[in-house]
Amino acid sequence: MDIIFLSEVKVETHLGVPDWERLVAQTIILDIEIAMPHSHSCQTDDITDTIDYGVVVSRIRETLTSKSFKLVEALAEHICQLIMGEFGAPWVKLRVAKPGILPGLKALGVVIERGNRNLS
């Protein structure tokens, strides 16, 4: 299985359980692994034969600007479903980190995996 990875993608969004926490956009950090539905791009060297990571990042930023989430888990699920649904990825692994939210804590977050990882 071929995987595209995007490391430490910084995105602004409204996230938090208390209403006041969602009033101002916060920076979250995403680490994304995306399985490619096929490996044609390895032979063709053509962007149309792969998942365009620039378009993926733009789409994530666009959707997170217009949405608000209480839970990191819900935000992560939304992003995974977006990548699989809009870009045809058969599998996505996503790490969402919300940095500096509590004193003495570098970050908190979740790691989720969706789809079928046992692809050939």
Task: Explain what the structure shows.
This protein is of the alpha+beta class and 120 residues long. The chain has a single domain (3-119), classed as 2-Layer Sandwich (GTP Cyclohydrolase I, domain 2), CATH 3.30.1130. Helix content is 29%, strand content 36%. A 5-stranded mixed beta sheet has the order 3-1-2-4-5. The longest helix is centred in the middle third of the chain and has 16 residues, at 72-87. The chain is elongated, with a radius of gyration of 15 Å. The N and C termini lie close together (5 Å). The relative contact order is 0.22. The model has no long low-confidence stretch (mean pLDDT 90).
Low-pLDDT parts are none
Number of strands: 5
CATH superfamily: GTP cyclohydrolase I, C-terminal domain/NADPH-dependent 7-cyano-7-deazaguanine reductase, N-terminal domain
CATH architecture: 2-Layer Sandwich
Helix content: 25-40%
Strand content: 35-45%
Helical stretch count? Answer: 3
Biggest sheet overview: 5 strands, mixed
What strand order characterises the main sheet?
3-1-2-4-5
CATH topology: GTP Cyclohydrolase I, domain 2
Give the number of domains: 1
Write the layout of secondary structure elements.
Layout: E1 3-15, E2 26-35, H1 40-44, H2 53-66, E3 68-69, H3 72-87, E4 91-99, E5 107-115
Parallel strand pairs: 1-3
Antiparallel strand pairs: 1-2, 2-4, 4-5
